[in-house]
Amino acid sequence: xxxxxxxxxxxxxxxxxxxxxxxxxxxxxxxxxxxxxxxxxxxxxxxxxxxxxxxxxxxxxxxxxxxxxxxxxxxxxxxxxxxxxxxxxxxxxxxxxxxxxxxxxxxxxxxxxxxxxxxxxxxxxxxxxxxxxxxxxxxxxxxxxxxxxxxxxxxxxxxxxxxxxxxxxxxxxxxxxxxxxxxxxxxxxxxxxxxxxxxxxxxxxxxxxxxxxxxxxxxxxxxxxxxxxxxxxxxxxxxxxxxxxxxxxxxxxxxxxxxxxxxxxxxxxxxxxxxxxxxxxxxxxxxxx
Length: 289
Fold this sequence. Notes:
Elements: H1 7-35, H2 42-53, H3 63-92, H4 103-133, H5 147-152, H6 161-172, H7 181-206, H8 216-246, H9 257-268
Helix pairs in contact: 1-2, 1-3, 3-4, 4-7, 7-8, 8-9
C-alpha cells in the first residue's frame, strides 16, 4: 500500500463536523469571555447570553464553521498522517516499517499540519468570531467606535457569513480575512506539535501489543490527554488571536500581536489565559491512526 491514504481525510471530515455540532455553544462562551466585556465568569456568561439572545445565541456563527471546518479538519489531519507516514517510509525504505514513529518525523509532520491549519483556518475562525461577537455589549464611552457602530447601536453588524465576508473584504481588503494570523501561527504550530506528538506516543504506549489495529479506548484516552496538554499551553495565544479577530467589529483597538499582548497584560495580568471555555475542537475532532 502506498503512503497516501484517503481514510485519514475521511476521519478528519467526520470528526470536524461532529465537533462543531457538539462544541459550538461552549466555543461561543469561550469567545465571549476572551474578547467580550461585562461577562464575568463562565456561568455568568452563559446566563447573560441566554437571557439576551435565548438558546439561539449560543449557536451564532455556526453555519460557516459547520460547512468549512469539516473540510478543514479533513485536510489538516490528512496532511499530518500522510506526511508522517511518508517521512517514516522514506527513512525506513520499507512500507512495513511505516508504523514506527520518530520524534523528528512527528515534529516535522506536526509543523506542516500547523502551517496548513493557519492557511485554511484563519478566515474560518475570523468569520466565526465576528458573528459570535457582533451582539456583545459595548460601551461607546472611552472607546473610539467606528461611525457605523454608533449608528447601529446593539444591532448586528453582519447579516450572515456571506455578508460578513463581503463586508470584511470591502472594508479591509483580502488581508482582512487573515487578521490575527500571526497569533494563530504562534498558537497552532506549537499547539499541533504538543498535540500530535503526545497523542502518537501515548496511543502506542496504551494500546495492547496484541492489537493489530487502533484500540478505541486507547485512542480516546490518548486524544483526551494530548488535547489537555496542547490546549493548556495554547490558551494564552488563543486569547490574543480571538481578541485580534474580534477587533474591528465595532472598533480597532489593537495594532498587532505585541500590542494586544501588552494591553491585555497591563489590564489583566497573567490571568489573560484563564477563560478557556473548551479545548480547540480541531485538536480533538480527527484522530490520526
